[in-house]
C-alpha cells in the first residue's frame, strides 16, 4: 500500500513522479528536496510527488522522511516501502503529469566508474516510451535525438531545478511536450515489434 501523506488544497494539483528504487546512488533526491522547498510557495498549483519505486532500506527511508518535512496544503508525498505491483504502477502513472529524472551522471560499479547516458543507461528512455509522459532531466544526461521533443533539461542545482519546476507547473509546459509523443513514430510499439520480427526472421533464415 502506498504511504500517502497530507493532501494538497482545493486547486488542481500537478503530479510528478520519480521512477525506480529509491537510492541516493542513482538519483539526487537531496537536490529535488531543496528545489521543491525553494519553489513550492511560488507555484500556482499544489504539487504531488510520487516516489514510484521501493523505499525500504535506512537510506531510502531517510529520503522519504526529508520530503515528509515539506508536507503542507501545497505539497503531498506518495511513497512505497515494498515493490510496486504493475497495476499500482500503472494506476499512479496514469495520474502523473510529468516525470522528473534527477540522475546522478557519474556512478561507480566495483572499481569501474560509469557515466549514465554514455557507458550506462538509466532506464529513463524506457519509462518515457512506455508511460508517454514528458520529463525534466538533468542537463548532463542526453536522451536520443528523436526523444528530445518530449524532455526538457535543468541545471543540477537547487536554483536550476526550482526555476524549471515553477515554469513547468505554472505554465503547464508539459502539456505541449506531451503532444510530441505522436511524432515518435519510430518508437511506436507496433513498429518496434515489426522491426524485431524482421531481425528474428533474418537470423532464422540466415539472411
Notes on the protein architecture:
The chain is of the alpha/beta class and 207 residues long. The protein contains 7 helices and 9 strands. A 7-stranded mixed beta sheet has the order 1-4-3-2-5-8-9, with helices on both faces. A hairpin with a 2-residue loop joins strand 6 and strand 7. Helix 1 crosses helix 5. The longest helix has 17 residues. The chain is globular. The N and C termini lie far apart (50 Å).
Computed structural class: alpha/beta
Question: Helix fraction?
Answer: 25-40%
Total of DSSP H or I helical runs spanning 4+ residues: 7
What is the spatial order of strands in the main beta sheet? Answer: 1-4-3-2-5-8-9
- Tell me, rounded to a whole number, the average pLDDT: 84
Q: Which series of helices and strands comes N to C?
A: EEHEHEHEEEHEEHHH
Alpha carbon gyration radius: 18 Å
End-to-end CA span: 50 Å
Number of strands: 9
**Low-confidence spans:** 6-10, 112-121
Amino acid at each position: 500500500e502506498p504511504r500517502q501523506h497530507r493532501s494538497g488544497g482545493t486547486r488542481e494539483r500537478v503530479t510528478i513522479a520519480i521512477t525506480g528504487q529509491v537510492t541516493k546512488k542513482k538519483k539526487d533526491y537531496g537536490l529535488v528536496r531543496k528545489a521543491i522547498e525553494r519553489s513550492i510557495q511560488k507555484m500556482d498549483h499544489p504539487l504531488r510527488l510520487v516516489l514510484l519505486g521501493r523505499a525500504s532500506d535506512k537510506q531510502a527511508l531517510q529520503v522519504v522522511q526529508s520530503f515528509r518535512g515539506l508536507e503542507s496544503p501545497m505539497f503531498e508525498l506518495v511513497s512505497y516501502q515494498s515493490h510496486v505491483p504493475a497495476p499500482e504502477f500503472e494506476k499512479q502513472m496514469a495520474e502523473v503529469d510529468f516525470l522528473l529524472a534527477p540522475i546522478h551522471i557519474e556512478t561507480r560499479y566495483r572499481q569501474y566508474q560509469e557515466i549514465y547516458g554514455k557507458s550506462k543507461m538509466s532506464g529513463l528512455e524506457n519509462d518515457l516510451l512506455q508511460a508517454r509522459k514528458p520529463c525534466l532531466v538533468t542537463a548532463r544526461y542526453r536522451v536520443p535525438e528523436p526523444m528530445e521533443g518530449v524532455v526538457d533539461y535543468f541545471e543540477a542545482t537547487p536554483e536550476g531545478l526550482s526555476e524549471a519546476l515553477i515554469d513547468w507547473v505554472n505554465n503547464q509546459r508539459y502539456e505541449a511536450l506531451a503532444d510530441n509523443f505522436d511524432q515518435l513514430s519510430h518508437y511506436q510499439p507496433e513498429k518496434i515489434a515489426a522491426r524485431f520480427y524482421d531481425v528474428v526472421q533474418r537470423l532464422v533464415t540466415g539472411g
